[in-house]
Every structure is written in C-alpha cells, then in structure tokens.
Specification:
Strand content: 5-15%
Largest sheet: 3 strands, antiparallel
Number of strands: 9
Shape: elongated
Helix content: 10-25%
Mean pLDDT: 80
Low-confidence stretches: 263-281
Oligomer: single chain
C-alpha cells in the first residue's frame, strides 16, 4: 500500500498517513487519526493544491495555509467563544480561504494570542509555536492551576523526558472550560530557565546569598519581621500584594498582613459576645 520509500518525504499522500514529516503537526493530527480510524484509502475527487506562504509573524501561533481543510473551526471559536473575530472566511466557492481582514498578517489583526484557534485546528494549518513538530505527550499529564492571576484556570502540564513540554487547558474544569489566555497557554518557559532559583536563599553575614532549606528561610524571615516590629513598631512593616496570585495565596497573604487586634476595620472586627447572643435570639 505504501508508495513512498522509508526515507522519502511524504506530504498529504492519500495512501500514506503516518509519515507527514513536512507537516508541523506530524503524529499529532486529528485528520490523520480519523483517516487511519476509518481506514480510508481511496480518493475520488482531487482539487488543485493551494500553495501558500507560511506566516510566522505571530510569536505564538503559526499559519500554514497549504494544510488547511477549510473546516472553519478557527473562525467559529475566535468569533463565538473568544469574541475577537480575528479570523474569517474570505472569497467564495472553490476560492474560499481562511484569512485576516484585508489579507493582513495575524499580528495586525485583533488577535489576543490566546492560541485557541491552533488548539481546535484538526490539521497543521494553525499550530502553536511551542509544539511545532512535537508528537503527542507520552508521559502522564499532571493537573494544575494557572498561577498568573487569581481566576484559577485549570490545566494539564504535559511532560516529555522529564521536562515540561506544553500546557493543555482542562475541558471540564471551571472557570476556563478548555480556554486559556496567552500567559496560561504559552508563558511557561521560565520553568526550564537556567537563571531560575530552585532553592530559597538567605543573606549571610558577609553580604553574600547562600542556598538553604525552606524551614530555615521561613524561620529567618519571621525572625527578621519580628525584630523590626519590636524595634520600630508594626507600622514599620509593609506588605505588597499582586494580582498574579491565586485566591488561596491572597487569602493567606491578607491573614499575614492584617493586624490581629486594635487596628481592624469595622467590617473585619469580630462581633462581641453580647452581640452574638442577641443575634442567636
């Protein structure tokens, strides 16, 4: 059945579906899996092949028009789910194409770089730049929560050879339901960054930083805050929060920063025993 030799480049061969080595989604193509499942080996109608220049202007999503089957999944998800309408159907009939308004690059459109179009694309027409030419993950995926903001989007971390390969949104997980923003979808390269600190560090008496354990680092931080409070008062200590923390981390942060007594606001002050008795009555 195979018409190509083992070292011959195959590209959209109607009889060979397991060696699309020129396609950026080789071995991870939905169309490839469907063709193999139904055991389709014959093609009655042939259309002229459309050759288009790949577009790599977008740092996160790459377009390969010659692999497009014009299912319009990307158009619908961009319009109906994301609400951006960066992609659309241009021309009519056999000349129909997936394009940006006025045939502009994707970077000059209203694209927010969420990567959702590349996720729903069944072929290699739209691919995430971080998974180009990558096969499906073979190791067990790890469920996780995005930590870039307090929304708490759920995701799966796909690992390959002990390294984080890519991120996949959770289809059934609230609140995102298979959607991620550009940070949750692509901003994970810091995990393998060589400059990343993998152990807590403390300042030594000579001024240099040295690695230590988490217990030792927390004890020294607590001792330093207590020393400042005893010497200069509680007003000498300030806390700076962040919008990129989870709800659980923000809750623990306010528990640490909020005064215990004497300086709480009326909304956070606990009711007195007399008030509690009246409310129970």
């Amino acid at each position: 059945m195979e018409r190509c030799g083992p070292f011959v480049v195959c590209q959209r061969d109607d009889l060979v579906t397991d060696r699309c080595v020129t396609c950026p989604r080789n071995k991870n193509c939905e169309l490839q899996r469907v063709v193999d499942f139904v055991q389709w080996r014959d093609q009655r109608f042939f259309n002229p092949r459309r050759i288009g220049e790949p577009e790599r202007s977008n740092p996160f999503v790459e377009r390969y028009p010659d692999y497009c089957i014009y299912c319009a999944r990307c158009v619908r998800v961009c319009d109906e789910v994301i609400g951006v309408s960066a992609l659309g159907l241009a021309h009519r009939g056999m000349e129909a194409t997936i394009a940006v308004d006025f045939e502009k690059p994707l970077t000059e459109s209203t694209c927010i770089y969420c990567g959702r179009c590349a996720v729903v694309c069944p072929t290699g027409a739209l691919v995430k730049a971080d998974t180009k030419y990558a096969t499906a993950p073979t190791e067990k995926t790890t469920p996780s929560v995005c930590s870039y903001c307090g929304v708490g989007c759920t995701m799966f971390l796909n690992t390959q050879a002990g390294r984080l390969a890519n991120v996949m949104a959770d289809k059934d997980g609230a609140p995102n339901y298979d959607n991620l923003c550009v940070r949750g979808q692509f901003a994970y390269d810091y995990v393998q960054n060589k400059e990343r600190l993998r152990q807590p560090q403390v300042r030594r008496p000579d001024g240099s930083l040295g690695a230590t354990t988490w217990d030792d680092a927390l004890e020294q931080a607590a001792a330093g805050l207590a020393r400042v409070r005893d010497q200069h008062g509680a007003d000498a200590i300030g806390f700076v929060g962040s919008g990129k923390t989870t709800n659980e981390e923000s809750y623990l942060f306010q528990k640490l920063a909020r005064p215990r007594s004497g300086r709480t606001t009326s909304t956070s002050r606990r009711p007195s025993s007399a008030t509690a008795r009246r409310s129970r009555r």
